[in-house]
Model the fold of this input.
Amino acid sequence: MSARVGIHDLAVATAAHVLDLGDLATAAGIDPAKYRVGLGQEQMSVPGPDEDVVTMAAAAAAPILARHGADGIRTLFFATESGIDQSKAAGVFVHRLLGLPASCRVVELKQACYSATAALQAAADMVARRPEDRVLVIASDIARYDLDSAAEATQGAGAVAMLVAADPAIAEVEAAAGVFTADVDDFWRPNDSATAVVDGKLSIGAYLDGMIGAWDDYRARGGVAIDAIDRFCHHQPFTKMAVKAHRRLGEHVGVDLGAESMAASTGYNRRIGNSYTASLYLALAALLDTDDDLAGRRVGMFSYGSGSVSELFTLVVAEGYRAHTRGAETEALLAARTPVDVARYRELHAAAASLGSHDDAEVAQESAGPFHFTGIAGRARQYRRA
Ligand code: HMG
Done:
């Protein structure tokens, strides 16, 4: 890449409700410390009936359009693994809800939690070729596992929207990247299932193997040495996983990387839970919003999607980035979530799993967010802006 290309703006959205994991643990007869300390999770965001990946994605992207307008946005990449249709890209609904121009290509990308990184890289390459273009990349997901399963405490919901542009105000995406693919059945979601199937222990090993494979490829492709990377964001299915990854990478390169170089990245994921494609970029948002000494610093980004595809790449944070972050807005969103008890959470979980597409249905507005799923008409999902 010749010109500086990267993340010009970044904004976060999550679901309307929140469940305290202490309550979930107590209801299941589990020591709450297993979730708080063992997994590193405090809370999970829980979507209401009128929310899904489309409403969260639109809510994440709306503030970016309010700040920058839509001029030059000729591509919208929507990354998700909890898509709402087998054919139509969820981003097409978002395109209409946001009032984007018709002269825009919209595509959905899927590879478990990884695909937002593929979208970001494709966007950066597009802008490098046509620096006047800007690309909207949105990662939006709802992590749902079976009730009473070991994975239940690692559910969550969230979205991150990023505007990719030349001369970015937040961070440049550097050209070197390491990639690693291995066919492994650690986590997947069959077409007829509302919840993911997971082999938890296998998935942890596959994640760590993917990280080492991606790191080795990154170095072989001209990526910088470990001591030239100042901070790290690792994919966070639960924040303790990022701690394990950080330790493992340190062992692999023979350097104690220190917890402080990744600690700030866990702040949002601890409270939102797994948001699959959005998780790594929520980690980046937390880092940008809480570390005020990042200008000119290099951030290592490790992206993992079960199945599995891994990528390790780096960002360099722009001078003046603090003026463009949205920490206060994200804190307000988290604080505005309505607490639910375990009984209500279980009702919402069951309702989401049972919603089919065959019968027309009206869904009442329950969440206070700006976009709503309003039901099914003629088998098609309906949305509106509040
Ligand atoms: P589990 O097997 O019930 O938990 O579920 P555990 O027994 O392994 O305990 C977890 C940790 O808590 C352990 O710590 C325990 O020692 C500790 P560790 O040894 O790992 O450091 N612990 C306690 N700590 C304090 N006080 C206590 C206590 N009791 C235990 N009283 C598992 C854990 C992760 C397997 C489960 O939650 C799961 O299956 N989650 C979903 C899969 C997942 O998140 N995998 C991560 C890697 S794969 C990935 O990241 C991709 C993904 O995001 C999907 C995608 O790509 O699309 C999932």
User: Anything to note?
Assistant: The chain has a mean pLDDT of 97. The chain has eleven helices and 17 strands.
